[in-house]
What does this fold into?
Amino acid sequence: MAGFSVEEETGGAVREVCMIDCHGITEQQWMEFSEGSSGVSEIAAWNAEIAAHVEECAECSKIYRELNEWNAQLTEEGRLLRAALELPEAAWDRMLAESLARVSAMPARGRGAGEAIASLRALLSPVFGAGTVRATVEAALQGAAPDGICGANWRAFAAKWSEAIQSICGLAAGHLAERVALSLAITN
Amino acid sequence: MNERSRPSPLTPALLWAGFLLTAAWTLAVRMTLFTGPRPFFVRPFAFGAGLVAANAVILWLSLRVGQDFPAGSALRRAWRLMAWAGALGVVRYGAIWSSILRGQAAGQPSPMMVGAQMAGLVSVILLLAALVMMRSPFARLGLGRLRWPDWIAIGALIAMVPVLFLLRANAPVTPYRLPLLLAVQRFDPVLIAGCAIAGILLLRVSRDLEGGSLAVSFRYVMLFGVARLLALVVVLFPIGPMTAPLTAAGLASDWLIAIAVFYRWRLMREAGEMAWEYETGSSS
It folds into this structure.
C-alpha cells in the first residue's frame, strides 16, 4: 500500500510520513485503523483491508493490540486534562507535568512520528487550543520535514514547532512545546 | 530556564467584579446627576478609581506579556502599544478623577481636562493599532481567515459609520466646548467601529484556535467592541430601560480589555509553570 496522507492529522498539505512499514501498512494507516477513522471512503476501504490482514497475521495483530493500548492511555490522559481545566491553576500545571511524564515513559518501541504528533495534540490542545496545535504542527512539518517526518528529523521538527508556537503564544509557550516534543522519543 | 512564579491575586472573578462595580458606579452617578435620560459620552463622569485600576491592570500585564516575545517581533510591538494604551488610560482617568476630587466643576475646561481627553483619544488609537497588529502572526499560520459572515459583519459596521456620526452629532456631548475637544469627540465613531471590526477579526482567530486561554482572550476583545458599539447605538433601541445598563457597560468596558489581557498573560504564566513542573518532575 502507498504511504498515507497526513492531511487529516495536520489539517494541511498532503505529504508522506515515515513508516512502521509492517507488511506494507504505513504508520498513518495504523493510526487511522486503530482510531477507527472511517469518514473518508478511501480510508474506510484501507481499514477494511487492514482488518482482514490483522485477522490473519500474528505480527500485525500484536501491533494492533499495542496501538490500542497506547490509544487508550492517550485518551485517558486527554480526559484527565480536560477534567483538570476545572482545577486550580497549580493543580492543573502539576497534572499536565505528570501527564507529560507518563506519556514520555510509555514504551518508545513502535511509537512513530504520527503517534508522537497525536500525543502532542492530545497533551497540548487543552493549553493552546486544538487549532493552534494543528496549524503550528503543519507549519513545522513544512519547515523541518517537507519530505516526511521521522526519527531523524524529529529534533528539527521540535525546534520549528517551538518557533511556530512562540510566534503566536510567546517564549514560555514555545519553550514548553519544545520540551514536550523532545520528551517524546520516537522510532524511525 | 523557567522558575515557579508566585501566586497571583488576579482572577477573572476579581476583574469581573471591577467591571460590574464600575458599571454600577457609573449608573449611580448618572442617576444622581442627571434628571432625564442622557445618551452616551457623558465622559466627564465616566471616570473613577475603577477605570484607573482597569487601565493599570492593562498596563502592567501588557508589559509582562510583551516581554514574552522576542525583540522586534510584531506581537512584542503590539503588546507595547497595548501597554501604552493602558498608561494613557491611567493618565486620562487619573486626571479626570483627581480634578473632580479637588472639587473642580465637571464642565469647567482646564488644561488637565483637555490633556485627559487627548490622552483618551490616543489611548483608543493605540489600542486599535495593537489589536490589528496582533492578528498578523496568526494569519501567517493560516489562522483567522475571514469567512463570509465576517465580511458581512464588517461591511455592516462600515455602512453604519455614517449613522454613528449622526448619533454622535446629535448627542449632548461633553460640557467642554473647546473646539479641539469637540473635534476629538466627533472622531469617536470611527474608533468605535474600528474596535468592533478588530473584535470580529480576533473572534475569527479565536474560533480557529479551538480553545485555550488565548481564544478566551480574543473573545473578550470582541465583547469590548460590542459593548462600546452598543453604548453608542442604544438610543436607536425602542426599549428605554436598556439605555442605562448598556451605557454603563460601555463606560466600564476598559475592564473587558483588562480581562482579555489577563487571559493572555495567564497563558504565558501557565506555560512557564508547566515547563517548570515538567523540568523539575523530569529531573527528580
Remarks:
- The interface with chain A takes residues 2, 7, 65, 68-70, 73, 75, 137-138, 140-143, 207-215, 266-279, 281-282 of chain B (CB under 8 Å).
- Residues 35-46 of chain B have pLDDT under 50 and may be disordered.
- The two ends of chain B are 16 Å apart (CA to CA).
